[in-house]
Design goal:
Structural class: alpha+beta
Radius of gyration: 26 Å
Mean pLDDT: 75
Strand order of the largest sheet: 4-5-1-3-2-6
Helix content: 55-70%
Low-confidence stretches: none
Shape: flat
Order of helices and strands: EHEEHEEEHH
Number of domains: 2
Length: 207
């Protein structure tokens, strides 16, 4: 029997760390890259629902693309909840937003999560550079004790490493200052968002 015309509508339920980490925007990007229509929205239970429209091959590629672990996003499962064939245009892809209060909370939480992740990365880089310099210095000290002339060259290299390390320390101090300034600015933004949420709640209670 010949396959009927039209497009496929596939409903996907995504589980994992997929809310307050920028996942809906990531799904939108992948939909635009693969040429899929439909929508994505958060569900109250912490999952994300994706309605994807397209042909079977494209939808398969799209499902693979959104099953990702990148940044703070960690998808554990992409489940096909339903599939049907539609006789309608595919259309574009969109993000279904929640209430203004929900989206404000989502934006502030996403920013806080990524800022914390970035700060951890900076600390990890600092620790790694320091450990590398200490290990190399220890090895050059061993060369210095055992091999005389070779040790002199080792000392020169070690001095160069020390100067590089000092420059790195200065750069890291500047980076920490910039991060502190960004953190203060972000905290002020979060405070403003909380004031806005309080205003919205009070307005809802009065209406």
């Amino acid at each position: 029997m010949a396959q009927s015309s039209g497009i496929l509508k596939r409903v996907l339920l995504v589980r994992g760390k997929v809310q307050r980490v920028g996942y809906r925007g990531f799904v939108l990007e992948k939909a635009q890259e693969t040429g899929v229509g439909g929508q994505v929205k958060n569900l109250p239970d912490g999952r994300v629902e994706v309605i994807a429209l397209g042909n079977s091959e494209t939808l398969d590629r799209f499902a693979t693309a959104i099953s990702a672990r990148i940044g703070l996003i960690a998808v554990n499962e992409v489940q096909v909840a339903s599939e049907e064939r539609l006789d309608q245009p595919q259309g574009t892809f969109k993000v279904v937003a929640g209430s203004l209060e929900e989206e404000t909370l989502e934006a502030s939480a996403t920013g806080a999560n990524y800022l914390g992740h970035l700060l951890q990365d900076v600390k990890g880089v600092e620790a790694g550079i320091g450990q590398m310099n200490r290990e190399m210095q220890n090895r050059f000290d061993v060369l210095d004790r055992r091999y005389g002339e070779i040790g002199e060259t080792a000392r020169q290299i070690a001095e160069l490493l020390r100067s590089i390390h000092q420059e790195q320390v200065g750069q890291r101090a500047e980076m920490r200052t910039a991060m502190d300034n960004n953190t203060r600015a972000f905290n002020e933004m979060v405070s403003t968002m909380r004031d806005l949420q309080s205003f919205l709640r009070n307005g809802s209670n009065r209406s």
